[in-house]
From TrEMBL, chain A:
Segments forming domain Hydantoinase B/oxoprolinase: 17-545
Signal peptide positions (record): none
BP terms from Gene Ontology: glutathione metabolic process
Organism this protein belongs to: Kumtagia ephedrae
Protein name in UniProt: 5-oxoprolinase
Taxonomy, superkingdom: Bacteria
GO (cellular component) term, any one: cytosol
GO MF annotation, one: 5-oxoprolinase (ATP-hydrolyzing) activity
A Pfam family the protein falls into: Hydantoinase_B
UniProtKB/TrEMBL annotation, chain B:
Taxonomic source organism: Kumtagia ephedrae
One Gene Ontology CC term in the entry: cytosol
SUPFAM superfamilies: Actin-like ATPase domain
Segments forming domain Hydantoinase/oxoprolinase N-terminal: 5-185
Hydantoinase A/oxoprolinase domain location: 206-489
Top-level taxonomic group: Bacteria
UniProt GO molecular function: 5-oxoprolinase (ATP-hydrolyzing) activity
Name of the molecule in the record: 5-oxoprolinase
InterPro entries assigned to the protein according to its UniProt record, in alphabetical order: ACX-like_C, ATPase_NBD, Hydant_A_N, Hydantoinase_A, Oxoprolinase-like
Stretches assigned to the Acetophenone carboxylase-like C-terminal domain: 523-676
GO biological process: glutathione metabolic process
Length: 597, 686
């Protein structure tokens, strides 16, 4: 059992009995889980159902995060920003109200994430917010996508709801919903998804009401304070183990023609104070807003700065207000990574540059030296997760359009662990399902000729990045269009502390014997007979490859991810047949010689 | 006298439930014998014979049926002691078992390596050849590649082969050709084809099932053969049936053909028992043992089958009765974390060293230790007094938690007790909320040795109004085996949609399924009048990527164009039930068709003939015992009743304890119990 210093427990400051702590913690978690299931069960669109692109949370009425479960980190680490404007803008918040917020200038993440918030009252006193956020399939933008890298300002984006009351006295406001459905390409789906969120909020409100009835106001509110203290204690204990100092890391998003010809550098400095158990994340030293949709919102910039830190703390630290309060974020207005200057576009604020910000946050800890930090990971939106469209020849030319998840990028290495293969970019954190070949082929008129791991594409190191995923797919008997935004083509994931880089993303059209390299950000037609070949970045390596445990090298070769030759040239590890048939083991003597040379 | 027997092999004990021709049931136990389970199997039959005052030979002569829930395949999988499997996949798709559909992980969980595939790369080969979604051959099968794979497998000493080729479910020609060639090249090596073991159009699920099936094939076959030999030696002349994971029994020959159906079959018998014990529509079944709490549910008095069962880092592939397991048992260890929060489990003291109070060297505080400190468990009457527990060791262990939290010993014990209850409640809510069952309106059936200690508080947390503590709670799964049907599931892929419905093709698919199902029941010796067939299809809305299972009526398994509106409406309804919405204007796609073949056995309801005599008036408690109760904040003297003394109609009012040799039940305030005519304690909460 872990050694515990009893004096740290602040028993004297305790507000509720210790048994109630565990009990109410699990009650609040159960409420968020039930809200999550309501959204999951009742939503219509594939992004929500399959890709789980939604999150639920409970906050106190003064905007402190109480509980999140099974949420996408980017949705919830700064949820307070989306509810805070509500108490500033409204002086008549009442029981049965529900508010809608998707505006980056009133605390939203980006236009496609509709945030629904409902106050929870107890005997006339507002005490909590229950919140459900869903990424909607369409927001009525000028083009049929929710990611618009070229949309310079909000007038080129989808519809904004800058804190709008969508229900009053438990009744939906039809006029508000009409605004939403009128400007939407899939109005039924939009309304269905909105109602799923309303259902989740009402479930959360009812369940918290039951908690009040069972335990009473003072116990519940006392618990919340204890719970925040606990979160702060856990975060402080984790931060206390880090070396004091200031550390800086810079990564760079690929060039986007017409928006950022040189790419977009993303720079983060952290100031670590182990004695106070506090980390300040400073992202102010970044370039000004760009003329496109790649700018972050204040919400995503703040959240991503915290996510980088949490990715480097023990996963058992609760992700509540107490823990968050130990991580301070500094942003600059008018910066691409910061508070956007009205009315610049932010429609891609949850992926691309945002992914780079999380990557910088993950990697800056490596500046402390081993065992801290992690290497750069692969980026999102390669052609393997492109939006495909066309006219289905097997359905009388019926049009189809959807995002596929055939292959996506791998994760970066960290000390002690190789990168996660099915990673899909830092915002998705390995939570997104990979498509079944047969399901895709039965749904769309395509053939996925190959899809798998690309050996030798990982960033080498004492710990290896995940290898790249690569594949080839093609349309059957028709022309197919594909849209993608493959960051990591020009600036692939870098290794840290001597680790190697992961392989870059590739988008290639195969037509007969011809190989045409496609641009990294594009909308391309793959004609009948032609094929698209993609590579989704491998992750960067961590530490000196010559320090890699030879047994790990042998395992990687046996897994088919590394050649025997590379084991000798890169890792100076010699392998021989031995033991189980068909399995290589370390040739200890030759390895010693190789590594000594 | 004729006897029917169910033998359920657990981690520590092999349970044997015997019913005589009057329906009187008795339970016998003998230690499990790992490595040679058939020994414990025969041992417990001898114990039963002795219990009836018969020689083993005389007893075995009168046994006409043995049903058995084997754990041999589950153990092999859990301990990763399966045989060496060679895997053949489609060229270009060598990583199907590596990628899965993206393994699950937590959002901030980074201290982990990516899991290895179920079949390692050096035993995986790909072959050229490709079928498309419509069954057309895009690339011809490479016989050369198969020949090379066979030669490699021979050289590598492969003991079983799994074949998983893309779209074998719509055109099996390539998989069948692979088998033809392999059978010649690798005589005697069992071969599992993915389209036969798990016909569904989702390659990872289909192929992982084939790989798991192949990897346990020789193990299950050997075990069944040993069992048969051992029973032959005992001159057993009756019938032996094996439990499968779809909630029924199957003959040996079928289990040898599809050994994957034996995986995790034991726990699926608990919901089958509940199905027989209660007529309630929505039932939750909880089974708390030493290391885990298994929970399952019945909706509309039907078992729930899930396609999402996991074993280590992989899906089981095939659908099975939904039983979820969490690390919350009597042996779960309590600790205080860095921030000062009490946590219980999932780490367990297991059977060795076990809880501190077992006196076998364990020092860490467990749930059982807390129950001893609270006074709910009597250290002198554990397993009917056959095992002495040490209160002093329990107090010392729980004392460490009390010191950490700065509370009294009793308060610490209660904190462990209630935290453990909340962990189990979370598991119950997970299954009920997901399945659209309201715990407040559900009936709860307790199983396993420890559930009845915890049910009262869990019921209060869930606002559950009624629960049952069955007379044979500790052997609930074995009871389920004794009363369950013969059952098998068959499925076939046939893709069509409501826009272009091919009724003839669907009807042909159903006819083939029906023939297979009939054959199965005939082989199992089920008379024609005792055969039932249930049909279902897997469907989805166009561009949805998950299928749901939709039962439908098909008279004699026939389908015509006229049936389409009915099928579509059944789909909309099921979709609305599971996901709360329906899309009347969307195209419905049909992907696979399923048949459940059910055979009723004679004598499976015989237990209902054995009823208890009514008992009027008050019953005196056998003792009083001090139990710490959080609601009063002190130790209260509670009456203790002996289950065996209670006749039908006896009423008990909580707070009180009820003890039997195999369990202790704790009824709280406002919990009123009544013994039903079968001897079960049914509790209502006021």
């Amino acid at each position: 059992m872990d050694a515990i210093n009893t004096s740290d427990l602040d028993i004297a400051d305790r507000r509720v009995d210790p048994f109630l702590m565990s009990v109410l913690k699990s009650r609040f978690e159960a409420i968020v889980r039930e809200m999550t299931l309501v959204v999951m069960r009742a939503s219509r669109s594939a992004v929500i159902k399959n890709a789980r692109d939604f999150s639920c949370a409970i906050l106190t009425f003064d905007h402190k995060l109480v509980s999140v479960e099974d949420a996408l980190p980017i949705h919830v680490m700064s949820m307070d920003m989306a509810t805070r404007p509500l108490t500033e803008l409204f002086d008549d918040i009442a029981r049965g109200d529900i508010f809608l917020n998707n505006c980056p200038y009133t605390g939203g993440t980006h236009h496609a994430d509709l945030i629904m918030a409902m106050p929870v009252f107890h005997e006339g006193e507002p005490l909590f917010w229950v919140v459900a956020l869903s990424h909607h399939a369409d927001t009525g933008a000028p083009v049929p996508s929710t990611y618009l890298p070229f949309a310079k300002n909000i007038f080129e984006e989808g519809l904004h709801f800058p804190c709008v009351r969508v229900a009053q006295d438990y009744r939906e406001k039809q006029d508000i919903l009409r605004i939403g459905t009128m400007r939407n390409r899939v109005p039924d789906m939009w309304l269905g998804d909105v109602r799923a969120q309303i259902g989740a909020c009402r479930t959360g409100e009812r369940r918290i009401g039951e908690l009040f009835a069972r335990y009473g106001r003072d116990t519940i509110m006392g618990f919340v304070e204890d719970w925040f203290d606990y979160g702060a204690r856990c975060a402080k204990a984790a931060i206390a183990k880090l070396p004091a100092g200031s550390y800086t890391y810079e990564t760079r998003h690929d060039p986007v023609p017409g928006v950022a010809e040189e790419g977009i550098p993303v720079r983060v400095t952290i100031h670590v104070d182990p004695e106070k158990g506090e980390i300040v994340v400073d992202a102010r030293d970044n370039i000004d807003n760009v003329a496109g949709g790649l700018n972050l919102s204040e919400n995503t910039a703040t959240g991503s700065c915290r996510i980088g830190v949490f990715n480097n703390l023990d996963e058992s630290v609760p992700h509540n207000e107490g823990a968050k309060s130990q991580i301070k974020v500094l942003l600059r207005e008018g910066s691409v990574v910061g508070k956007p200057k009205y009315p610049v576009g932010t429609s891609v604020a949850t992926t691309n540059v945002n992914d780079r910000l999380m990557i910088a946050g993950n990697c800056v800890f490596a500046e402390m030296g081993a065992p801290h930090g992690q290497a750069e990971s692969g980026n999102h939106l390669p052609a393997g997760v492109g939006v495909i469209s066309g006219h289905d020849p097997f359905k009388n030319g019926k049009p189809y359009v959807n995002q596929v998840f055939v292959g996506y990028a791998g994760g970066g290495a960290r000390h002690g662990f190789d990168g996660w293969l099915t990673y899909c970019g830092p915002a998705n954190a390995g939570l997104i399902q990979l498509d079944s070949v047969e399901v895709d082929e039965s749904m769309y008129p395509i053939v996925i000729e190959r899809r798998g791991v690309l050996p030798g594409s990982q960033g080498f190191g004492e710990f290896e990045g995940a290898p790249a995923m690569a594949g080839v797919f093609y349309p059957l008997d028709h022309d197919m269009t594909i849209v993608y935004a493959a960051d990591g083509t020009s600036f692939p994931p870098r290794g840290v502390l001597g680790g190697g880089d992961g392989k870059e993303s590739e988008s290639i059209k195969l037509a007969g014997s011809e190989r045409v390299v496609l641009p990294a950000f594009a909308e391309e037609t793959i004609e009948e007979g032609a094929k698209i070949a993609f590579t989704a970045c491998g992750g960067g390596g961590y530490g000196d490859p010559l320090k890699r445990d030879p047994r790990r090298v042998a395992a990687t070769v046996n897994r088919g991810w590394l050649s025997r030759e590379a084991a000798e040239t890169v890792y100076k590890v010699a392998l021989v047949e031995g033991g189980e048939l068909g399995v290589l083991v370390v040739d200890e003597a030759r390895t010693r010689t190789l590594r000594a040379a | 006298m004729a006897y029917q027997v169910c033998i359920d092999i657990g981690g520590t004990f092999t349970d044997c439930l015997v019913s005589n021709s009057k329906g009187e049931i008795a339970i016998f136990k003998s230690p499990t014998t790992p490595g040679e389970f058939e020994k414990g199997f025969i041992d417990v039959l001898h114990v039963a014979a002795e219990g009836y005052g018969l020689t083993p030979a005389d007893f075995m002569k009168q046994v006409d049926l043995i049903v058995h829930g084997s754990t041999v395949s589950t153990n092999a999988l859990v301990e990763r002691k399966t045989v060496k499997v060679g895997l053949i996949l489609t060229e270009g798709h060598q990583d199907i078992l590596v990628l899965r559909e993206g393994p699950r992980k937590g959002a901030f969980q980074w201290r982990l390596d990516y899991p290895d595939p179920y079949v390692p790369r050096h035993l995986t080969r790909t072959v050229g050849g490709r079928i498309d979604a419509r069954g057309r051959e895009l690339v011809a099968l490479s016989l050369d590649d198969i020949g090379k794979a066979a030669a490699d497998f021979r050289a590598l000493g492969v003991e079983a082969v799994a074949v998983g080729l893309l779209w074998s479910v719509v055109n099996p020609a390539h998989e069948l050709a692979v088998r033809d060639l392999l059978e010649r090249e690798l005589p005697g090596i069992p071969i599992t084809l993915s389209h036969e073991i798990n016909p569904m159009p989702r390659e990872y699920k289909r192929i992982i099932a084939a790989a798991i099936d192949a990897s346990i094939n020789p193990i299950v076959r050997t075990y069944i053969e040993k069992l048969k030999t051992a029973l032959d030696d005992e001159r057993f002349g009756g019938e032996l049936l094996l439990a499968n994971c779809v909630g029924g029994m199957m003959p040996l020959a079928d289990m040898i053909r599809k050994p994957i159906y034996s995986v995790m079959s034991g726990p699926t018998l608990a919901p089958m028992a509940a199905l027989a014990l209660s007529d309630e529509p929505d039932i939750i079944v909880g089974d708390m043992g030493g290391t885990t709490f298994d929970v399952s549910a019945l909706r509309d008095h039907q078992i729930i089958v899930t396609p999402d069962s996991m074993i280590h880092d992989d899906s089981l592939g095939i659908p099975k009765v939904d039983v979820r397991s969490v690390g919350a048992g009597g042996g779960s260890i309590a600790f205080v974390d860095e921030g000062g929060l009490l946590r219980v489990g999932p780490r367990s003291a297991g059977a060795r060293p076990g809880p501190a109070c077992y006196g076998k060297g364990g020092t860490e505080p467990t749930v059982t230790d807390a129950n001893v400190v609270l006074g709910i468990v009597d250290p002198d009457y554990f397993l009917g007094g056959k095992m002495q527990l040490r209160r002093d060791l329990a107090e010392a262990a729980v004392g460490s938690i009390a010191a950490r939290l700065g509370v009294s010993l009793h308060e610490a014990a209660y904190a462990i007790y209630t935290t453990s209850n909340h962990n189990m409640v979370a598991a119950i809510e997970e299954i009920t909320v997901r399945e659209g069952i309201n715990p407040r309106d559900s009936f709860f059936v307790c199983g396993g040795g420890a559930t009845a200690i915890h049910i009262a508080e869990m019921a209060d947390i869930l606002s559950l109004k009624r629960y049952m503590i069955p007379r044979f709670m500790a052997g609930l799964s074995a009871f389920g085996g004794l009363i369950s049907d013969i059952r098998n599931e068959e499925s076939a892929v046939f893709l069509t949609s409501s826009a272009t419905f091919d009724a003839a093709g669907a009807a042909d698919t159903l006819r083939r399924l029906r023939r297979t199902g009939d054959g199965f029941l005939a082989e199992a010796g089920v008379a024609a009048e005792n055969r039932q067939f249930e049909f279902a299809f897997l469907g989805r809305y166009e561009y949805q990527s998950f299928e749901i299972e939709v039962p439908f009526e098909a008279e004699g398994g026939m389908l015509t164009d006229d049936d389409l509106p009915g099928l579509v409406e059944a789909f909309h309804r099921m979709h609305e039930r599971i996901y709360s919405i329906r899309a009347d204007n969307d195209v419905v796609e049909f992907t696979a068709w399923k048949l459940r073949a059910i055979g009723k056995r004679s004598g499976q309801d015989i237990w209902q003939r054995n009823t208890l005599a009514d008992q009027a008036g008050d019953v005196a408690p056998k003792a009083k015992r001090g139990v710490y109760r959080q609601e009063s904040g002190r130790v209260d003297e509670l009456p203790v009743y002996e289950m065996g003394d209670l006749g039908a109609g006896v009423r008990l009012a909580g707070p009180c304890l009820v003890e039997a040799e195999t369990f202790t039940a704790y009824l709280k305030d406002r919990h009123h119990g009544e013994i039903d005519r079968y001897g079960n304690l049914v509790v209502a909460v006021a």
